[in-house]
DNA sequence: CTGAAAGCGCTTACAG
DNA sequence: CTGAAAGCGCTTACAG
């Protein structure tokens, strides 16, 4: 069976003794086309099961109604939520999403970007890979006149639209909350410090301690080492210190917070009475553990929506020829106080 | 600032006093082109920061090197993992992914499909929405000669390639395992029964009981009602029965299993001694609770890889004109035995 | 090995 | 309101 050809506007035109021009106009709801023939054309197109060729239309119009997204990992909660948020908002406007994952590798990130440029996407949304600090490929996006929007992990030096989480502020609030609850020796589980977002969380932790006149004890700061096998022992060591902490801010994520909870339970350390615990990212399970775990919600879906709205707004501005200043929108994460820090 | 035009093969040709034909051939590594000029062309293209226009190339070639994916929700673990798997395999071959979410709504699913048809994707991968049982839009995909691959939630009546999970077999194994461990009154937490996959899990549960000569007690089968507020009370009711279960198969997912664990702990019911628990889907947290929770791994990333491999294989067959029979590949989920069912 | 030409399916100024 | 024509950027048989 040879692939039968698709119906084109020429086929419709031929059938109705019209020209492709008219068919095109009718189908695009353009003015200057007789209402009766328009009706006829639309009806006939449906009958013939006509599907417009977006490729041709986009080539002609010089835009693709497509947004490209590059994230380190598609199947990481935060990112898949952001993508879902972007999808929701852009879909209504008839935009498509092309999605790539960099796998945290700079090489692949460059390749993804090139593919998206070749695809003539109208906009590229990216959260940069942890590896590499050469941003020539992103500059290339700008040079090709494609709107670039960075989020979460951003290259500061590039002047682009940015949507970020205020990690420092959120961390500061979380730690301040714990101090208010009477915790005095608060430990920090670091996330990977090569990423800015985790450095910000650490900075927030330190700022909170200082603001409340508490000392920063290096002994209580645990470097990121969260393979499954290392997590437990690290926490155990912490809790076995001569002067153990009375609270732990698991700034990496809720999984590390869960490990803390498990180790504490296992050692007979009561949460929240003897040990406060706060995680990060509001994974679904934090609500259902006992005690439930305090954490920080990043509003990831909302971040996605913000990104797309920012894009559409920017497009409007360009049409109006308003000067567009590169701006950064900071989303305030929300501290979710649950039982694990309430005493 | 007006958008500057991109470099085309004509620009390169002009610069080198050649024709677009030659440039095209050189850039596509085609034969019949002098090695020296080829080198020159490639070098010049790079210097001019030339990016091919995939839109034009695809229009001309009549294919898009793009695969469309439609899932109920992008940000659901299972689906985002499948997508990641597809991405990994297709990326190497230079394919792009256009991703849509149906939000479980039939209307939106139809719209997604139409968009993908218009985009001239080469293949559509879909897991159908829970709503609706009219599959005209999928038939339309086939009619447009686009390869259709269904996965997980499939419309049986359509003759397409299918990649499914053997939910029944996996559930049967899980329940049999619990029986082997000495549990005798095993309860079932159902998933939404309008979806085939959850009906299969229930069937596996019943089959296991029957195979081991155990009675099926309707009292022990709890309908899906997993809003956060309803989960706890439902489990509590179950455990307060005059003849309570000594094990629970949370066939819906690991979150419901976690609820069971929390309620049991709260009631002083020892897991696994007095109550066995098995979840479904191998969420990351199941490994780190105490006791760790037995569950079923669906190999979701592998499912994604299988889907793309199936597609490439099918393409090869078509090129060889081999008769292509619609086939179903069944992935065997893996029972992960942990502490919550080991006594 | 290279060039001239047609065409993928559409849109859109330009006439009438 | 409708048509004829050009062109988006590329690829590919057809000549030479």
UniProtKB/TrEMBL annotation, chains A, B:
Assigned keywords, A-Z: DNA-binding, Transcription, Transcription regulation
Transcription as UniProt keyword: yes
Matching PROSITE patterns: HTH_LACI_2
Pfam families the record matches: LacI (PF00356), Peripla_BP_1 (PF00532)
InterPro entries per the UniProt record, alphabetical: HTH_LacI, Lambda_DNA-bd_dom_sf, Peripla_BP/Lac1_sug-bd_dom, Peripla_BP_I
Key word Magnesium present: no
Domain (HTH lacI-type): residue spans on this chain: 7-61
Gene Ontology molecular function, alphabetical: DNA-binding transcription factor activity; transcription cis-regulatory region binding
Gene3D superfamilies referenced in this protein's UniProt entry, alphabetically: 3.40.50.2300, lambda repressor-like DNA-binding domains
CDD domains: HTH_LacI, PBP1_LacI_sugar_binding-like
Name of this protein: LacI family DNA-binding transcriptional regulator
Species of origin: Mucilaginibacter mali
């Amino acid at each position: 069976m040879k692939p039968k050809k698709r119906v084109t506007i020429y086929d419709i035109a031929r059938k109705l003794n019209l020209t492709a021009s008219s068919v095109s106009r009718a189908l695009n709801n353009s003015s200057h086309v007789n209402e009766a023939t328009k009706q006829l054309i639309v009806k006939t197109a449906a009958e013939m099961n006509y599907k417009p060729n977006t490729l041709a239309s986009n080539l002609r119009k010089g835009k693709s109604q497509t947004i490209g997204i590059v994230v380190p990992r598609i199947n990481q909660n935060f990112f898949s939520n952001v993508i879902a948020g972007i999808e929701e908002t852009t879909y209504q406007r008839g935009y498509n999403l092309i999605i790539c994952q960099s796998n945290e590798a700079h090489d692949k990130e460059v390749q993804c970007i090139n593919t998206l440029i070749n695809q003539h996407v109208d906009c590229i949304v990216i959260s940069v890979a942890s590896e590499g600090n050469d941003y020539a490929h992103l500059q290339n996006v700008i040079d090709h006149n494609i709107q670039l929007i960075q989020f979460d992990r951003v290259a500061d030096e590039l002047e682009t639209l940015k949507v970020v989480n205020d990690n420092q502020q959120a961390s500061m609030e979380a730690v301040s909350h714990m101090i208010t609850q009477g915790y005095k020796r608060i430990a920090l589980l670091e996330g990977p410090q090569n990423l800015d977002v985790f450095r910000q969380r650490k900075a927030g932790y330190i700022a909170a301690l200082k603001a409340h006149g508490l000392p920063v004890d290096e002994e209580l700061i645990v470097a990121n080492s969260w393979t499954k096998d290392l997590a437990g022992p690290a926490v155990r060591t912490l809790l076995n210190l001569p002067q153990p902490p009375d609270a732990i801010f698991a700034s990496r994520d809720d999984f590390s917070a869960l490990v803390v909870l498990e180790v504490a339970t296992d050692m007979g350390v009561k949460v929240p009475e003897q040990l406060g615990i706060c995680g990060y990212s509001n994974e679904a399970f934090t609500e259902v553990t006992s005690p439930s775990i305090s954490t920080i919600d990043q509003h990831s879906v909302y971040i996605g929506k913000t990104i797309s709205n920012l894009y559409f707004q920017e497009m409007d501005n360009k049409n109006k020829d308003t000067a567009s200043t590169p701006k950064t929108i900071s989303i305030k994460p929300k501290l979710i106080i649950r039982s694990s820090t309430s005493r």
